[in-house]
């Protein structure tokens, strides 16, 4: 068995980027980030906004204080999305921009739309207001990125022309995250810094083996690797200063396990100084031993058949 994970050599079909919007400035900045990314990918951009309907109890309807009537909220959501879409088209001539408005909880709306549209990724902003912002800033933020079966990009901090920082966990989740990071770095002509928390002496060799096929596939991407001690999340936060993007994998742990063991992706969502991409695990089971070599410092199952 090869000592490296195999890069996906097929060109994936692009379906589009879904960006959540709540009317705030930071959500607008996230939409602009998504528009620029969709433009480089040559795929459509879908701007989505959710609103909450009045609460109905029997024959009575209760509208929360400060909310306009249901039809007025829908009109305002549609109007604000149209203005944002026009700005995105102006900034990126030729970009296909669509809008979607749904009533309901923002998490459910985004999840449903992502599935219906087969979105390649979902983009959100931070420190906004309204239901989308409560989702990102509240306790359900980590749940969303761990539940969605596609990358979620949270645009926070500042976007700098620095490196793409890739956090490697040394598990089967790394394959898709590596794909995402190399593809992004290549399109934006950015260097890539792969960071892994490791205490084994053979860690550097194992890390080089894991990245070898991506280096072959993306020869123009300048790659540096770094093994760090202490908490990997702290190291990634520190290296997010001046970075263009931080990319981490998602283990899909449940909430209890994340609370007990912590989550690197959760830490990045709330503490990184630049946009963060959380990429769910792909079907890299045949390469599990090779990825595990980074965590153990041992050969990646040389001479043995991959597990099904």
UniProtKB/TrEMBL annotation:
Residues 17-156, 217-280 form the UspA domain. InterPro entries: Rossmann-like_a/b/a_fold (IPR014729), Universal_stress_UspA (IPR006015), UspA (IPR006016). It comes from the Bacteria. Belongs to the universal stress protein A family. This is Nucleotide-binding universal stress UspA family protein. It comes from Actinophytocola oryzae.
């Amino acid at each position: 068995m090869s000592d490296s994970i195999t890069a996906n050599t097929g060109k994936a079909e692009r379906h589009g980027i879904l960006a959540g919007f709540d009317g705030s400035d930071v959500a607008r900045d996230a939409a602009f980030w998504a528009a620029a990314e969709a433009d480089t990918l040559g795929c459509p951009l879908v701007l989505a906004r959710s609103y909450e309907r009045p609460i109905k109890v029997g024959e009575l309807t209760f509208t929360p204080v400060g909310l306009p009537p249901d039809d007025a909220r829908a009109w305002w959501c549609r109007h604000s999305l149209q203005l944002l879409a026009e700005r995105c088209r102006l900034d990126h001539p030729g970009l296909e921009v669509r809008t979607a408005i749904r009533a309901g909880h923002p998490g459910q709306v985004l999840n449903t739309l992502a599935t219906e549209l087969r979105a390649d990724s979902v983009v959100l902003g931070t420190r906004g207001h309204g239901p989308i912002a409560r989702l990102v800033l509240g306790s359900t933020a980590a749940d969303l990125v761990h539940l969605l079966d596609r990358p979620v990009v949270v645009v926070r901090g500042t976007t700098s022309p620095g490196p793409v920082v890739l956090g490697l966990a040394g598990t089967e989740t790394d394959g898709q995250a590596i794909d995402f990071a190399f593809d992004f770095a290549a399109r934006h002509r950015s260097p890539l810094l792969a960071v892994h928390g490791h205490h084994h002496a053979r860690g550097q060799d194992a890390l080089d083996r894991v990245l070898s096929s991506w280096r072959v596939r993306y020869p123009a991407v300048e790659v540096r690797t770094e093994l760090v001690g202490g908490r990997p999340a702290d190291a990634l936060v520190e290296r997010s200063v001046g970075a263009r993007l931080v990319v981490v994998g998602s283990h899909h742990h449940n909430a209890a396990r994340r609370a007990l063991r912590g989550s690197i992706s959760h830490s990045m969502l709330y503490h990184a100084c630049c946009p963060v991409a959380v990429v769910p695990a792909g079907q890299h089971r045949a390469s599990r031993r090779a990825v595990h070599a980074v965590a153990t410092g041992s050969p990646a199952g040389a001479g043995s058949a991959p597990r099904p």
